[in-house]
Amino acid sequence: MDNDFRQDNVMKGAGALRKAQRVEKVHFGSMSFNTGISGQLDSNKYTLFNLMADDKANELSFGQRIAMINSWITDMDANKHWLYKRELVDGCRTEPQVKKGAGEARSMINLGSNDYLNLAQHPRIKAAAIQAIYEAGLGSGGSPMLSGTLSTHRKLERKLAQVKGCEDAAVFTSGFSANTGVISALMGRNDAAIYDRYAHASLMDGSHGTNRLFFSHNDVDSLKFILEKNRHKYNNKLVILDGVYSMDGDIARLDEILEVAHHYHAWVLVDEAHATGVLGANGHGTTEHFNVRGKVDIITGTLSKAIGSVGGYVAGSKSLIQFLGPVSRPYMFSTAPLTASSAAALEALNVIEEEPQIRAKLWENIHFMQSALNNMGFNLGDAETAILPLILGDDYKVKQMATRLDAAGIFVNPVPYPAVPRRLSRVRLSLTAGLTQEQLTYSLAQIKRIGEELDVI
Ligand code: PMP
Asked: Is residue 359 scored above 70 in pLDDT?
C-alpha cells in the first residue's frame, strides 16, 4: 500500500522525466544511488541513515561526502520536502513572517515552536534583557571558572536551584552542553549509563567511551530487569531520562523510576527541557508534577524552550556543582552566556511562577487540540503535553503532509526516520499558550483536509 502510494505520487509529480531517469545512477566514490526527480540522489528512496551509516561512506573524500549529502538535499528541495532552516523574519512568535530561500516572507501559524509560553516576546522579559545589557554589557569575556562568571549568572543559578529544589546549579551555554558536560564529567570507564531508549541525543552524546545500557521507553519493569541483571557489575550506574520526551510528548514515570533506581543504588538524571514551565502547579517541572522534589540526583535542562531564552543548566547538590567546575569540559572551556540571555531566563522563571494563567492557557490549547486530533482519528501515541506527534509511520507521507501544511500557511516539523523508527515517523506539532482559537481551528481544518488527501485518517 505504502509503495503503491509513493509510486503513484512520484509518477504524477514528475511524469515522463521521472520515467526516463528511473534507471540512472549518481556516484560518489564507490557509493551509487538511483536518481530522483531532480536527477540527483533520490531522497524518497534513501534516508540520511542510508547515506552516512553505510560503511562505504568512510572511504569517501570530504568533497565526495559533502557532494553526496548536497545531492540528497537538492532532490528533497525538488520534491518540496526541504522544510529546514525556514527564516523567521520577525522572531519567534505565534504567527511569524516566514521566508523560504529567496522567496517573499509570508505569515504562518507556528505549530513548530518550543517557546511553549511565548515568553520570547514577553515585554517584562525583553525589558530585563535590555536592562542587563545597559548595566553589564554583552559578552562575559571568559569561561565561568575563569573571568566569565557575572552576577547575572549567579543570580540565575540560585533561581534555578530554588525552582528545581536543589542546593545549587551551574549555567551552561546550551542544554546540549549541559547534558554532555555533566555526564562526561561523571562517568568513568567502569561505570554504566542506563538510558531510556528515547532519551535525547545530547544525553546519549555524553557517554561516549563508557558502558551504555538501554531500557524500553518509559518501562519501569524493563529498567528493573537491566538493574537486576547488572546488580554486581559496574562501579556506578546513572539512569538517564527526559522528564517530557521531545518527540513523543509523554511524561516519564519519574516517581516509579526513582524508586527502582535508588533501590539498586543507581543515580538518576532527568532532563527537564520540555517539562519546565509546562508541568507542575508552579511550572517547576516533572519533579513538582510527581511531588519528588529533592529526590532526583541530577537535574538538567535548557533555557531555550518554555523559558524563551537560550542556555542550559545542571542542578544538584552543592558538591556536585562544585565538582563540575574544573572537570566538566564545556563548563571549563566555553565562555559563559550573554548577560541578556541569562537575565531574560531569570525573569522568565519569575514570570512562570507569577503568571500561572499563561500555563493554564497552554493546557487549554493542549486539551482542545488533543481531543480534536483524536476525534479525527490521528494516532498521537502517548502524547500528553504540548508536543503532539501525528504518527503516520510513512516517511513519504510525513514529508508530504508537512509540505502541504507549509503551503497552507502552517509551520510544522516533519520527523522522518532516522530521527524516530520508520514505523513511527511523524509530523510533530508543538503548541504554545498564545495560539488563538481561530488559529487552532484553521490549523485543524487544514490538518484534517490533508490527512484525508493522504489517506492517513
Ligand atoms: N534536551 C532535550 C530533551 C531537548 O529537546 C533539547 C533541545 N532540542 C536539548 C536537550 C538541548 O537543548 P539546547 O537547545 O539548549 O541545546
From this structure: yes
Centroid of chain to Cα 150: 29
| Contacts with 63 (C-beta within 8 Å, 6 or more apart), sequence order | none
φ, ψ of residue 104 to 5 degrees: the values are -75, 150
pTM over 0.85: yes
Please say if 305 is a catalytic residue.
Answer: yes
pLDDT tens digits for 196-244?
999 999 999 999 989 999 999 999 999 999 999 999 999 999 999 999 9
**pLDDT at residue 418, rounded to an integer:** 87
Ligand 1 centroid, distance to 158 Cα (angstroms)? 21
C-alpha span between 377 and 385 (Å, rounded):
18
Give the helix/strand (H/E) hosting 404: helix 395-407
Average pLDDT of the chain is 94
Q: What is the pLDDT of residues 69-89, one digit of tens each?
A: 999 999 999 999 999 999 999
Contacts (Cβ under 8 Å, ≥6 apart) of 28: 60, 64, 65, 67, 68, 71
**Residue recorded with cell 535525547:** 200
- Say how far residue 54 (Cα) sits from the centre of its chain: 25
d(CA 170, CA 332) in angstroms, rounded, equals: 11
| 341 CB near ligand 1 (under 6 Å) | no
265 labelled catalytic: no
